[in-house]
Specification:
By secondary structure, this protein is α+β, with helices and mostly antiparallel strands. The chain has two domains: 14-183, Methyltransferase, Cobalt-precorrin-4 Transmethylase, Domain 2 (2-Layer Sandwich); 196-205 and 278-442, Immunoglobulins (Immunoglobulin-like). Helix content is 23%, strand content 26%. Strands 1, 2, 5, 6 and 7 form a five-stranded mixed beta sheet that branches. A four-stranded mixed beta sheet has the order 15-19-11-22. The protein has a four-stranded antiparallel beta sheet with strand order 17-14-20-21, with no helix packed on it. A hairpin with a 2-residue loop joins β20 (407-416) and β21. The longest helix is centred in the middle third of the chain and has 17 residues, at 259-275. The two termini are 50 Å apart.
Length: 456
């Protein structure tokens, strides 16, 4: 079957990447893995060891050495390498962090090598991941990328290109085309651009023990003597103290767990809840803090089409924004169902073999996990003397341990259709307020934060 994906649509959000990987997996169930001039797939590979790291470096070089007019035919010009899919299954690869890949790939790519980023999605096993390497779209004026180290399948000094079916050494005419690409970088116009974060940036800190009172109190309440099997006033004493007999209430279901099993669930809930303190705090921040909004201002008289903005911030952590008024801790960390008969349907958690699965995922691998955050935004057009704001529903940014007045440094890169140049700049952001999370979270109190966005 053909790949069920519109190649003109480059995934941006986590849900888009999830659907893309599903499409790849579905295609693999009946045919060999789909590959093209914009996509290479590897099923079993060790990303940080030879020969795996050499294969990744070779692919990144080949994708970066494509001609712009060829690359632009799919995925917005980006090149992709997907690792960890086999016969439609997410077998995954060993988990990595960006700084580990950067250190390993720098030996092959050098300091001026292809610009790449990574996305990570869950695999079938918890200790593995589906790894997606993303190479920036090539533009006129780009250098000819070479390998600076040899490994299995890649040579020191090798120049590699990507065609529809393989990444291989460049041939004579391809070398000439790459030289022409380099020479085509003329004099694009100068732009006067301003990029700033116009939503407030907050610091946040908490003690891992802030949940102890909540879990202890809840556990004591749940483990108090079992509720009677029928509501008060049922008029029948037969079976009234048994969790298994229900009289006079057709809307209740009988308890099916043993008392021992129930107590085990409660103990497990309390223990894992404390272990997940960091995740729970971040889920609270995802609900309470405003979504991040960047503003791009075009101070020039040049019309920009199909704008792409990449922002890099140091000392900042990203979590996926959740637009909801539900701040009750029981919404973030659902409690086990109390022991005894219960109404049908019960709105809580009837049982939970894996409590960790109850915490909403914060998997957002386009953002780095090494103390910095990267994000990419797109806008169809930016008019002369105009501006645009990014979607505030995408992400929440915060500074771990940040205090009011702390400053965060960042850089940005902007590209646009028809301008064969990357425009770059820097930005400095001050922390608006340092938040401290404590018992207020447990009492369903929203931290008072400014949700406003500065006017142009």
């Amino acid at each position: 079957m053909a790949l069920n994906w519109d190649v003109e649509k480059f995934p941006r959000r986590q849900g888009d990447w999830e659907r893309f990987v599903v499409a790849l997996a579905d295609q693999q169930q009946s045919e060999p893995p789909f590959e093209d001039f914009w996509l290479e797939q590897k099923s079993q590979i060790e990303p940080l060891r030879s020969p795996g790291i050499g294969k990744i470096a070779k692919c990144l070089i080949g994708m970066a050495n494509r001609l712009p007019e060829v690359a632009d035919r799919a995925m917005g010009g980006h090149g992709l390498m997907v690792c960890g899919l086999e016969d439609g299954h997410r077998i995954g690869v060993a988990r990595t962090e960006d700084h580990q890949l950067e250190n390993a790939l720098r030996l092959f790519l050098g300091d001026e090598g292809p610009v790449w980023s990574a996305r990570r999605l869950p695999a079938d096993q918890n200790d593995r991941e589906v790894l997606i390497l993303i190479v920036d779209a090539p533009v006129a004026g780009d250098p000819i990328h070479v390998s600076y180290r040899a490994s299995e399948g890649i040579q020191d000094g090798g120049v590699y290109v990507r065609n529809r079916t393989e990444t291989r050494s460049a041939r004579g005419n391809e070398h000439r085309a790459l030289v022409q690409r380099l020479q085509a970088g003329g004099g694009p116009p100068d732009l006067d651009l301003t990029v700033e974060l116009v939503s407030p940036l907050y610091g946040a800190r908490w003690e891992r023990t802030f949940l102890e009172r909540y879990t202890t109190t809840t556990k004591e309440s749940l483990l108090s003597p079992a509720r009677p099997a029928t509501s008060s006033g049922s008029g029948s004493g037969s079976g009234g103290s048994s969790p298994f007999g229900i009289l006079g209430n057709p809307f209740q279901k009988p308890e099916t767990r043993t008392r021992v099993r129930f107590e085990h669930e409660v103990e497990e809930w309390a223990a894992i809840g404390l272990e997940l303190a960091d995740e729970i705090a971040e889920q609270y921040l995802a609900r309470a803090l405003p979504g991040a909004v960047f503003r791009v201002v075009n101070n020039s008289d040049i019309y920009l089409k199909n704008v792409q903005l990449a922002v890099h911030l140091e000392q900042v952590k990203h979590i996926e924004h959740q637009d909801t008024d539900e701040l009750d801790l029981s919404d973030i960390l659902p409690q086990p169902r109390p022991y005894g008969p219960y109404d049908d349907p019960f709105t809580g958690i009837p049982s939970h073999p894996s409590l960790a699965s109850m915490i909403p995922g914060t998997w957002q691998s386009a953002f780095r996990s090494d103390g910095s955050a990267d994000a990419v935004f797109e806008e169809p057009a930016l008019r002369p003397r105009g501006s645009f704001d990014t979607d505030r529903e995408d992400s929440v940014l915060y500074v771990p341990g940040g205090k009011e007045g702390d400053q965060v440094k960042g850089t940005w890169t902007l590209t646009a259709e028809g301008l064969d140049r990357r425009y770059e700049g820097s930005l400095t952001i001050s922390v608006a307020t340092g938040l401290v999370l404590g018992d207020g979270l447990i009492r369903n109190e929203r931290v008072v934060v400014r949700q406003d966005v500065r006017n142009p």
